[in-house]
Amino acid sequence: MSAAHSAATPTSRAGHGQGRGVLALRGLIALAMVVDAVVHIHLSPGYQLSAPSGVGAGNLFRLEAAVAIAAALLVLVRGNRTTYAVALLVASSALAAVLLYRYLNVPAIGPLPAMYEPVWFLEKSLSAAAEATGAIVAGAALLWTRHQGRPRTRAVADQ
Amino acid sequence: MTSKPTTKPGLMTIAAVGLLVALTGCGSSATTASSASGATPSHTSSPASTPGNPSLGAASSPAAPQAAEPVLITIKDFAYILPASVASGAKIMVKNQDNQSHTVTSTPKGAFAIKVDGGGTASFTAPAKPGSYQFACDFHANMMGTLVVK
């Protein structure tokens, strides 16, 4: 995997442009994850008090924020299939959760409190948009690295 | 295209009566659903100047002010459903129909503050001083309302 990666840089001059593009994608993913994390951290104290059962909504928000920050750092430090996949997983799962609890009155399940909240407001919308952006860009980056990897492995196989 | 004079007197009478009925009968002091908008009526006196309350000459209409009736604030879907106004010093019941806890906390703090658990009820006393009191939920900053005390 790492060989396929390092192979993206050497030859072509277009590689520089691609490198910048990839860097921009990584920056965008990281930014989206950070926005998501900041919103969750900011909202967490209130939600911990309003839905304290189980582990508490606020603690789940803090966990989400920590995971999002970790994903952002991973993508910034190293942009590869694994880190893009992690970012995609984190962003899409967070987006799925916010949509689920926005539209479905899910009861408390085990350590998860009931968090049904049938409204959108600025911060919530912002974090959902950030999660969607992070998921889309990470997904695109993941596809792009797969495309990048394929011809090389074939070429190696042909030899 | 001009109107014919034949039936004019009858029509005019009906129209006049209809207009009169429409003008006097529309003093609806319906429920005021105040939520995230944060529209703020200014101080005192004017009759329930909360949004959605028509303010033409309806001041004289018998709007049935809540005298000794229990006043109820309902919280549903992360929004406050409020009466148009409450009497000063009235006991106000707060019914929370959400499954998360909320608060009714005056902003700035001090006039009243109450926490209502999910599915629960609680009560507080309206301020003695008439006026418009803004309030919010401590846990969900998007939830706001204005309590008009008369």
Descriptive terms for the model:
heterodimer, A: 159 residues, B: 150 residues, Immunoglobulin-like, four-stranded antiparallel sheet, 1 helix, globular
Outline the structure in words.
The complex is a heterodimer of chains A (159) and B (150). Chain A has 159 residues and is mainly α. Chain A has one domain. In chain A, 77% of the residues lie in helices and 0% in strands. Chain A is elongated. The N terminus and C terminus of chain A are likely disordered. Helices cover 11% and strands 30% of the residues of chain B. Chain B has one helix and nine strands. Chain B starts with 7 loop residues before the first helix and ends with a strand. With 150 residues, chain B is mainly beta. The interface between A and B is medium-sized, with 17 and 15 residues.
Q: Summary?
A:
With 159 residues, chain A is an all-alpha fold. Chain A has one domain (22-158). Helix content of chain A is 77%, strand content 0%.
Fill in the CATH topology of the domain at 71-149 in chain B.
Answer: Immunoglobulin-like
Strand content of chain B: 25-35%
What Rg of chain B is obtained from the alpha carbons, in whole angstroms? 20 Å
How do the strands of the widest beta sheet of chain B line up side by side? Answer: 1-3-2-4-7
For the record, give the distance between the C-alpha atoms at the N and C termini of chain B, rounded to a whole number: 53 Å
Counting H and I runs of at least 4 residues, what is the number of helices of chain A?
5
Query: What kind of oligomer do you see?
Result: heterodimer
Helix content bin of chain B: 10-25%
What is the residue-mean pLDDT of chain B, rounded to a whole number?
A: 68
Helix-strand makeup class of chain B: mainly beta
Number of domains of chain A: 1
Mean pLDDT of chain A: 87
Stretches of chain B where pLDDT is under 50 for at least 5 consecutive residues are 1-67
Annotation, overall tally of beta strands of chain A: 0
Q: Helix coverage percent of residues of chain A?
A: over 70%
CATH class of the domain at 71-149 in chain B: Mainly Beta
- In percent terms, what proportion of residues of chain A is strand? under 5%
- Taken in chain order, the helices and strands of chain B follow as HEEEEEEEEE
Second-tier CATH architecture of the domain at 71-149 in chain B = Sandwich
> What's the helix-strand series of chain A?
HHHHH
The CATH superfamily name of the domain at 71-149 in chain B is: Cupredoxins -  blue copper proteins
